[in-house]
Amino acid sequence: MPGHTGxxxxxxxxxxxxxxxxxxxxxxxxxxxxxVGNTPIAAATGDFNRDGKSxxxxxxxxxxxxxxxxxxxxxxxxxxxxxxxxxxxPRALAIADFNGDGLLDIVLTTAGSIVxxxxxxxxxxxxxxxxxxxxxxGDLVVGDLNGDERLDLAVVEGGNVSVFLGKGNGTFQPPxxxxxxxxxxxxATGDFNxxxxxxxxxxxxxxxxxAPVVTCVDSxxxxxxxxxxxVPLPPRRRHTRDKCS
Length: 245
What we know:
Order of helices and strands: EEEEEEEEEEEEEEEEHEE
Structural class: mainly beta
Radius of gyration: 21 Å
């Protein structure tokens, strides 16, 4: 909200599924508003205190903070707000276990850094763990992008996608940058060629398709692969920086 100087503003809307009388079979109840920080820009949910209820984390750009609202059940949240200060201007946020302790953590992209708030399992978070990041990051996606069973990040910035390989302790390696050639708004991962694997070099499809590599068909026999439902599958491919053998 331009010109807003207060620490908190009303932003959060919870829409509860409900049966609307007569007009619609399914509708929504009136919104419930919850205060968080100044200029919220991203949000994600997770069970931060392991009570079986969904909690929410909100990244606040102008406050340079993260607000935590613990779930009270039935689509509502507790009145207490947990606030954590992070480096300048968070841009995107996601929830996952980045240090392998079985507890949910929060990861954020900020101006120039990747920030992880390690979860304690009781709804609170430890001190921020910071890794170097992009100057003007945008959307992010979490996944094991190189097959080492550690969570990594792919972050968009302008016309690039930057891949930050996780070290398994809440920190990340320096980015591997891939130029897309045009402004990128968002990023997602998936098994786009339905081969059920990450390739012979054990890299995720995101890296395999963006990296400057040569794609080779593994063998002639692989061209005739058929899935269980009878739909032909694309040939198995491997990725190399050399010529196909």
